[in-house]
Structures are given as structure tokens and as C-alpha cells.
What does this fold into?
Amino acid sequence: MIGDKGVLITDPANSYRAQSLKMEISKLTKLPVTHIILSHEHYDHVGGTEVFPKAKIYAQSNTKSVFKLDVSGQAPKNIDQYFDDDYSIFMGKIEVDLHHYAAGDGVGTAIVHLPKESVVYSADMYASDEIINKRWISDSNFLGNRLILNKMVELKPKYAITTHSESIESYCQIWCMSHLFRRRSVDLLSPRFHL
Ligand SMILES: [Zn+2]
It folds into this structure.
């Protein structure tokens, strides 16, 4: 997202991906990357921040305890701004809202919402054609994912951007994902749960 004075990105992933992202951004603007939002603490999202030395790094507070472990050696050495539930950043006239509704995929799940542009970004909770990918299942909280997806539906986004997958283009589709989650959760959890 290109603001007046800098660029905001999410999840640079790793040094290699961050370098190619930097190159792509340089085709669009001369402005530096000034803001990096980490969607959650998983190793495949949080590396490569060193490629953008001018950037302030934002993460949800629950990531702190996991970053300390830094199993893959990729976690950022320093987070400039932790937030708990809600946080807003202004990139000139563009408002970027960060929300933590629950632990979803990982514990420090952050949703990025551009209210005026009607865009919502979340990571690793659904793909364009499936609710969950086997790779994610080991650290996903189904009830949290369901709650987050429903919250995202309430935002009525025109565009929903996800990870490891193509984006989907209407909140109706997120609703479908959320509905599938419900059925899946009921299958996996006790039928006493009325979701
Ligand atoms: Zn993940």
C-alpha cells in the first residue's frame, strides 16, 4: 500500500522473497517501505524484515512469546509496535486498521483492514477453494478462525486477500468459508458445541 511518504507491506516472508518484493515495489514508487505488518508469528511470514531497514514493524502482542523462541532464526530482532486488540495507522489519507479478534492461525493473528478501500487481509485461515490447508492445521484454532472469519464478513469487504492462494472477491465467499468452518468444527469437536 503506497502512502504519501512511504509504503506499507505485510509479511515479507523471508530474505529472498523480501528482495523480490522490494524490486517489484521499486517499479511502482521511489518511496521506501516504512511499515511492515506481520499477520502472525509463523516462520514463513516473519523473515526478511532486514531488507527494509527504514520500516517500523508491527505485530500483535501474543507474538512476543513465540518470537523469543525464534526456532528458524528468522524472527525480527525488534518489533517497534506491539498492539493488543485494535490499532490504526495513517499513511497520509489512507487509514489502515489492525484488528486482533482471536487466536486463529497462530496466536498473534492480525487482520489488516482498509475501511475506505474495502480491503481486508488475513493469513492462513482459508484459501480460495478450501477452508484449510493441511500445512496449517497443526497450529490453527478452529473456533478462533471461525470467529475471525465472521468478523471479517461483518466488515463487508469488497476484496479479501489471503495467503498461499489467490484472493477472493466478495464477502459472500468469506461467509461460505466461515460456514464450512462451522461444519468442520462441529465434525471435529463434540456435537455438544452449537456454533
Ligand atoms: Zn501460518
Residues 7-188 form a domain with the Metallo-beta-lactamase; Chain A fold (CATH 3.60.15.10). The pocket of zinc ion is lined by residues 40, 42, 105-106, 123-124, 136 (CB under 6 Å). Confidence is low (pLDDT under 50) at residues 184-195.
